[in-house]
Design a protein that fits this description.
It is a single chain. The protein contains eight helices and seven strands, in the order βαβαβαβαβαβαααβ. The chain starts with 10 loop residues before the first strand and ends in a 27-residue tail after the last strand. By secondary structure, the chain is of the alpha/beta class. About 3% of the residues have low confidence. The chain has a single domain, classed as NAD(P)-binding Rossmann-like Domain (Rossmann fold), CATH 3.40.50.
């Protein structure tokens, strides 16, 4: 494969894998195809989860096992899975220290973690319908966790100088969408602003590059499939984007490219959406939909 050599022998941390349809799964598999070693972190039981109910602990265990099986089946290449809760600094610290004890200094990190508890309930119609608790949880998991992850890895000596960090975003960080996404839109906007701040800060201090990639509307994942109205946005994007919707392979290739060592690229918000971001209406105007026109989707 052309371009495979630059990642050979390098180690990357990929977060956010839940099943075969996760975008992070495609990214991890692409990195392995390019010769990299991949460590996958997944939500699972840790020593820092105290006082949980049996049901909650069973949920954490099932989530970790689902990730582990997905990694073995879909990623391969000796990729490993480690439990880590990105909302608990001490849990991230444990991950960093475990890597450090093995002499691993990560060459890059892929942040693909997000959570909006309102979406599991059908989505809040607007921000006024989002409670303070749900809003802050969404920001914590979907945006602040990038800061916490990079800080703890750096302090543990588990992130190499010149490493690269990539987070996954969405056009809703910039534009108001019609499907329920209010809190997550704000979280994605925060994530992108965090990307810019960290790019300036970590570039000067550690030579670390920080970028974000926006992807097309995507319903195949567990998270995307739960968003009411996203299927219409996906169909509309397929119809009006100059190249149709991007495929998850397109996203994986762009992330792998940005992780390539030696690139003087940081603070970028890349769009991998078939050109959807070019259009003033975006994917939110159902009247402009032309079903089947320009659709590259295989989903």
């Amino acid at each position: 494969m052309s371009g495979a050599a630059p990642l050979a022998g390098r180690t990357f941390l990929v977060t956010g894998i839940t099943d075969a349809a996760s975008l992070a799964t495609a990214v991890a598999a692409e990195l392995v195809r390019r010769g990299a070693h991949v460590v996958c972190s997944a939500l699972g039981p840790t020593p820092h989860h105290e006082g949980l109910s049996a049901r909650a602990r069973d949920h954490l265990a099932a989530t970790l096992e689902s990730c582990r099986k997905t990694v073995e089946r879909e990623v391969g290449g000796g990729a490993e899975t480690i439990a880590c809760d990105l909302t608990i600094d001490a849990s991230i610290r444990d991950l960093g220290e475990a890597l450090g004890r093995r002499g691993v200094a990560l060459d890059g990190v892929v942040h693909a973690v997000a959570r909006d508890r309102t979406l599991a309930r059908g989505g809040a119609p607007g921000l006024l319908d989002v409670s303070r608790e749900d809003f802050l949880d969404c920001l914590d998991v979907s945006a602040y966790s990038l800061i916490a992850l990079l800080r703890e890895l750096l302090e543990a000596g588990a992130l190499a100088r010149g490493a690269s960090a990539i987070s996954l975003s969405y056009l809703a960080a910039e534009r108001v969408v019609t499907h329920p996404y209010a809190a997550m839109s704000v979280a994605k906007a925060a994530l992108e602003r965090i990307t810019l701040e960290l790019a300036a800060e970590l570039g000067r201090r550690h030579g670390v590059r920080v970028n974000a990639v926006r992807f097309s509307p995507y319903t195949a994942s567990r998270a995307g499939g739960s968003i009411r109205g996203l299927a219409q946005a996906e169909a509309h994007g397929a119809a009006i984007a100059p190249l149709g919707n991007a495929l998850f392979e397109d996203l994986a290739r762009e992330v792998a490219h940005l992780l390539t060592p030696g690139l003087a690229v940081t603070g970028e918000i890349r769009n991998v959406d078939g050109g959807l971001h070019l259009l003033a209406s975006g994917p939110w105007d159902p009247a402009a939909r032309r079903p089947g026109d320009g659709d590259r989707s295989n989903r």
